[in-house]
């Protein structure tokens, strides 16, 4: 503690260990997708030291289990280790749920009572902390934080806005699914709250389940699918399912059709209603039909309408037109793009870790003496360094050292020749997006590149778009960007300028849009210099940028995992820290590119100021 009693070291974490296990034990026979509808995913840890956010990482990056909900022991260990601290140095441990105040709502039936006592009761968190970190036993009790307050702080503080509306939309917290807050001078005041019967997150989750995908995981696939559909066919049904009301409120009557515990855990009543609307369920793993694609488009359209309805009301009501967003629905980058283009708002900040992993940060912020004074870095590079676990020393692949500027110049040249390469440098990104430290990069000029990356590297569905990264200086020449949009974190979908679409077809979605990352030289210098080198060679300051992982795996954590991704996929080349590895077909071209990048006057050297 400081002399004023302010905690110097605050650890926040997210996740509800045992939550899924409780559900599957009590409801045998659930399908795998049904078993994924539970509270407490996205375990993560975040660390504040002396008013600085110094580390944050998801547990999935250690366990390999995507969206892992178990106690984030490894993530906590990493955060402390990276700061040169251990548990004995921690003064406050904060958790991203506060079910203690909600105990009365957890007694409705035998299953709810069991779930409360074995999972939701905050006492379980202290028990888990002590079991996993014995140094905390007898000294630290876990401090619960209201879930939406954690989300709201996670957006308000790093937004940098002195005053803002903070809107949280998710599946649900302890009770609420939508909250609106006024943020000013470090104080967060709640203006409105809608409970789980108004949950756009649950609506999207059950749609995801109905269309054959995994809920709490694949919602972004439904959003991608929606761009290819026609919402008109199911528009009347969605007006029945989601009702807009006065004062920025709305309700989702579709969610009120599950009348016993099993139905509530599987949304079987709601899903029957979707069948009644005329949209049959899809088998998991089978591609959606055109009719189901139209249904996805109608859900997306209605979610956007409800989203704008609540934000628009509170902007008009308060006169505050800067908006900070968090909660899983804030990851709906198409809806955020529509808000930015609506004329309703001046500026929009989306917490890049808008899902529940971000509430690890928010829980810690709840115990900062002055949250507004906490310094958060502009980018999300808060996880393990690439050197934390290096690649294996024995490798069958050709490899060579490559200093940063040479590596960047060679990467640009290889990309211009059609290489699909991995780029793993520095610290891991926190949140779902790779922003230039754990990326797969490729040439966007041929549509076939997208299909190749999807089929051979990412092993994923062809309808899913891949995103572009662009030099910030060239952003407006290539993309039609509303003034309200902040694009450094890849959280907003915007139109590609019509005259540019044919130049970068691999990263343009069916509707002419793209979820673009604007890359600033002072924020992501390595990726910026690759983009600059690529532009000097091709005239195009844009690259495809997707996360360095294969389907079903979390993004590569460190050098060892980046190497494993390279060796288990059809990536041509990977740059890991100061070493480049190449598959046989690319070996000679990598040698040539490195030699060219070594020469004085090479493009990346020029971009780096002749270094
Ligand atoms: Fe949440």
UniProtKB/TrEMBL annotation:
Alphabetical UniProt keywords: Transferase
Carbamoyltransferase C-terminal domain location: 412-583
Translocase listed as a keyword: no
SUPFAM superfamilies listed in its UniProt record: Actin-like ATPase domain (SSF53067)
Pfam families: Carbam_trans_C, Carbam_trans_N
Gene Ontology MF terms: transferase activity
Alphabetical list of Gene3D superfamilies matching this protein: 3.30.420.40, Carbamoyltransferase, C-terminal domain
Carbamoyltransferase domain sequence ranges: 42-365
PANTHER family given in the database record: NODULATION PROTEIN U
Family: Belongs to the NodU/CmcH family.
Protein name: Carbamoyltransferase
């Amino acid at each position: 503690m400081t002399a004023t009693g302010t905690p110097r070291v605050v650890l926040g974490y997210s996740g509800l260990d045992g939550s899924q296990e409780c559900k599957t034990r009590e409801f045998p026979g659930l399908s795998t997708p049904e078993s994924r509808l539970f509270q407490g995913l996205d375990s993560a840890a975040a660390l504040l030291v002396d008013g600085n956010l110094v580390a944050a990482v998801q547990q999935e990056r250690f366990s390999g289990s995507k969206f892992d909900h178990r106690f984030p022991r490894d993530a906590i260990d990493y955060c402390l280790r990276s700061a040169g601290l251990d548990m004995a140095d921690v003064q406050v441990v904060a958790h991203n749920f506060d079910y203690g105040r909600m105990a009365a709502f957890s007694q409705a039936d035998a299953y709810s009572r069991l779930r409360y006592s074995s999972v939701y009761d905050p006492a379980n968190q202290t028990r888990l902390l002590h079991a996993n970190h014995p140094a905390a036993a007898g000294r630290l009790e876990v401090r619960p934080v209201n879930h939406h307050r954690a989300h709201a702080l996670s957006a308000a503080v790093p937004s940098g806005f002195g005053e803002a509306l903070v809107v949280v939309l998710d599946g649900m917290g302890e009770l609420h699914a939508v909250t609106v807050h006024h943020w000013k001078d470090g104080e967060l005041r709640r203006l409105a709250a809608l409970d789980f019967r108004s949950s756009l997150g649950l609506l999207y989750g059950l749609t995801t389940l109905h269309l054959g995908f995994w809920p709490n995981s694949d919602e972004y696939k439904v959003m991608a699918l929606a761009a290819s559909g026609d919402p008109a066919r199911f528009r009347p049904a969605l007006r029945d399912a989601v009702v807009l009301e006065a004062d920025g409120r709305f309700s989702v009557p579709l969610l009120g059709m599950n009348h016993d515990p099993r139905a509530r855990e599987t949304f079987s009543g709601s899903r029957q209603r979707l069948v009644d609307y005329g949209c049959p369920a899809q088998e998991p793993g089978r591609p959606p039909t055109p009719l189901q694609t139209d249904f996805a488009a109608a859900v997306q359209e209605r979610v956007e309408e409800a989203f704008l309805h609540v934000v628009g009301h509170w902007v008009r009501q308060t006169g505050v037109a800067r908006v900070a967003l968090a909660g899983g629905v804030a990851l709906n980058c198409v809806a955020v793009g529509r808000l930015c283009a609506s004329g309703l708002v001046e500026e929009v900040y989306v917490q890049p870790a808008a899902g529940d992993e971000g509430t690890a940060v928010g829980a810690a912020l709840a115990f900062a003496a002055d949250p507004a004074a906490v310094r958060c870095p502009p980018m999300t590079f808060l996880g393990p360094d690439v050197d934390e676990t290096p690649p294996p020393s024995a490798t069958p692949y050709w490899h060579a050292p490559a200093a940063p500027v040479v590596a960047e110049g060679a990467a640009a040249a290889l990309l211009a020749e059609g290489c699909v390469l991995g780029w793993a440098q520095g610290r891991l990104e926190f949140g779902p997006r790779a922003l230039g430290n754990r990326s797969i990069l490729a040439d966007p000029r041929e549509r076939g590149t997208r299909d190749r990356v999807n089929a051979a590297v990412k092993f994923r569905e062809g309808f899913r778009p891949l995103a572009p990264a662009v030099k910030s200086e060239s952003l407006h020449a290539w993309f039609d960007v509303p003034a309200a949009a902040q694009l450094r974190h890849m959280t907003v979908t915007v139109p590609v300028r019509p005259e540019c679409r044919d130049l970068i077809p691999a990263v343009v979605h069916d509707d002419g849009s793209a979820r673009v990352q604007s890359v600033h030289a002072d924020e992501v210098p390595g990726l910026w210099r690759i983009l600059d080198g690529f532009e000097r060679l091709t005239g195009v300051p844009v690259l495809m940028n997707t996360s360095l992982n294969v389907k079903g795996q979390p993004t590569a954590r460190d050098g060892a995992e980046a190497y494993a991704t390279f060796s288990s996929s059809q990536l041509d080349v990977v740059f890991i820290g100061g070493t480049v590895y190449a598959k046989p077909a690319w070996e000679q071209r990598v040698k040539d590119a490195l030699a060219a990048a070594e020469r004085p006057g090479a493009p990346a050297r020029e971009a780096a100021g002749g270094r």
